[in-house]
User: What shape does this take?
Amino acid sequence: MRNYVLKRLGLAVVTLLVILLALFLMLELMPGSPFNDEKITQAQRAVLDAKYGLDQPVFNRFVHYIKAMLSGDFGVSYVIQKNMPISAMLEARLPVSIQIGFQAVLLGTAIGLLLGIVAALKHNSFADSLTTFISVIGVSFPSYVFALALSYFLGWKLKWFPLLYSSAAPFVSTVLPTIALSMFTIATVARFTRSEMIEVLSSEYIRLSESKGVGSARLIIVHALRNALIPIITVLAPLVVALMIGSLVIEQIFAIPGIGSLLVTAIQINDYNVIIAVSFLYSIMFIAIMLAVDILYGVIDPRIRLAKGEKHG
Amino acid sequence: MSETVLSIRNLSISFQTASGMVNAIRGVDLELRKGETVAIVGESGSGKSVTVKAIMRILSSNGQINAGSILFHYEEKGKRVTQDLLKLSQKEMRSQINGRRIAMVFQDPMTSLNPTMTIGNQIMESMIIHLKKSRAEAHERALELLHLVGICDPEKRMKCYPHQLSGGMRQRVVIAIMLACDPEVLICDEPTTALDVTIQAKILELIKTIQAKTGISVIYITHDLGVVAKVADYVTVMYAGKMIERGTVEEIFYDPRHPYTWGLLSSMPDMGSPNEKLYTIPGSPPNLLHPITGDAFAPRNVHALNIDFKLEPPMFKVTDTHYAATWLLHENAPKIEMSETLKARMDHVAKEAESEWGEKQSYELLI
Assistant: This one.
């Protein structure tokens, strides 16, 4: 198992380097520069480029960037907050994004599992149809539609929750964005849980457990759910990615000072270092989640654990 | 004659399907006495499995029990209790009967064990639930059980997951799981069908040995008549959801009375007569979606009488233990005997079954 994790970590580092290079090359291809002000003359621009090292060839900048990054220096922002170190910007913004993302994953999987299990147990009932309905809605509408609907009804009409994020109420003001973000997760997890649970519940080992006299609560949680979870974990990784992408828009709508809205602003005004740092951060999170899911697989399914880890005699 | 443990009376079960109501069981009676083995034989779809699933109350949710009773006689705190299993709630059934007093071994050991739970935990589970044993006690007993079912190195196997064991080993584990709470009745639903023949013989031996040791009553479902000859005291033949003949194993093998039983026995491959063409029963079983008039077997029966197509035959008594549902046993019916070839064949098979069962003979007959 340890060898497997080390190998995967090594691969992750290589993948991140390739992603970083790709980011550099794509920025190079983007039109314009961070210094787009019409009042800036050619000479002034050359001075600025030289100051920030933008006159260097792309490969030199790449090597320089990696060297600096390894010592924790992600450069400074050119435009958004002039000469502000990016690590400081991220430090202020990352916790909010992570909080909302974490809340959304938690809420999404919890409600999704619950809906899926109920639907599977009450197969072909009203609860089952309702779950299918929620799943279809959740998968087919983008998260910003929910965001707008929620802010209109719960925020504007009923005034239950604030319309915009406020650091004075860090939980209440993240309720709406969390719900909006988690809808897709709820829908997908519910759909997968339902079909997996139906299949597992009709399997022979569940009949055998019933024959042993296992009570229904234990039957569902210990015997059925654990087996149903194996395929559900597979969809969790892409779901978290979908959630990250959704957060770009959701943070804009609710004016959340997170890294999603930072990235969107940075792309609009060519703040190179911010774009690279935030995109890179997203890549790290993505790869970390993939790795976590693969390891989680082994924890839940003994067949995978043994195939990858120690050989059994 | 020892006391009755389980008696099924007039059981009738149907399933709601997309194409309509399927009357899978149309009146089944069964009597199981202490320490005895009853074999239920019949082709696929004749309702063998549905009958025992009804006993365990693990029918799929679209199945409904229309009529009948399943009376279970057992001792509780020194008193003899009679309980209709169909009157218990599912919860009562699981906590009082399933695994505790009636246990069931399933057909395919490759799919009947939970893949994400260790063998040890699966064996210990029912003891912890029913007998309120501590984990340490249950562990001790599980080791004994694994030893009893012939698994070597039980300490190590306890930590294994099902995928690390072979099919035969898994079936032994399933048997160990089911014996954990010393049940009074063990139901074996084709326990050897999914295993290869050498393992089959060993599992059959194991069940017989355990029965001799514990005095457990066994219901054995199979479509393999070789297995029946080896394990059963009584045989019940089912066709299209009804019992059509029952008797002791000798009566069914030496003196079968229902034409369907003749057909079943004739279509059994036999090593003793190599040049013969193997007999098959013509046609296929009726569709239970439609109501059946008369004898369900009549359309496939070369000896069918006119009345067979009109009126359902009752159970005619042959001896005190032997009954068959065929109009041929009526006093006015023409005298029809089973064919000479079948007679010769039966003699041969019966002799095989009687001879001491070494590994080699059982292997031959089981093919």
